[in-house]
Amino acid sequence: EIVLTQSPGTLSLSPGERATLSCRASQSVTNTYLAWYQQKPGQAPRLLIYGAFSRATGIPDRFSGSGSGTDFTLTISRLEPEDFAVYHCHQYGTSPPFTFGPGTKVDIK
Amino acid sequence: EVQMLQSGGGLVHPGGSLRLSCAASRFTFSNYAMSWVRQAPGKGLEWVSSIEGDGVGTFYADSVKGRFTISRDNSKNTLYLQMNSLRTDDTAVYYCAKDLFHSNGIFDPFDIWGQGTTVTVSS
Fold this sequence. Notes:
heterodimer, A: mainly beta, 7-stranded mixed β-sheet, 0% helix, B: mainly beta, 4-stranded antiparallel β-sheet
């Protein structure tokens, strides 16, 4: 089983600032099968990024993903008020179990 | 609009059973693998189970293997999760989720999620 670790646990920033979130895997993620989701309180997660760097439909270009192997990053170039939420990384593919990271909360400084 | 409507959660005693349902609309249901993901109170997301589009292949997290059964009825566009021998640590919000891409031999990330249904296991 691939274990995903996210850092930091909480990121306190102001609107307009840049957010950099990390997701580290315990072993190499096949074919960059790594996704990111945004989740707000009381809501289901929303897919932001898949394949490590491809934006899902309707996702603004201030969200970008990068990385390969065991180290992945989600960057929000300029935080908008609606971006304050919890972000989860997720490894998927052909071999279950599929796993999620514990999440990074981005809150308002 | 593509959507999935969940039903079937509730309060159950330890050792009891529940069946969750997820009714899909506005997409060709049988073309997509489907999954269940849960979130315990204040915790992160946990993958529970996945099923291929034709219903043949099913996969489970170790934490639920032998207790939970995923199934689908493609004629009714509905996904199910039968949960038996429930334990207090099964308490969570359960989400059904649709694969991003048409069945391709890969379990993809999830682009459409149900609204979530709460399962509480308590004596």
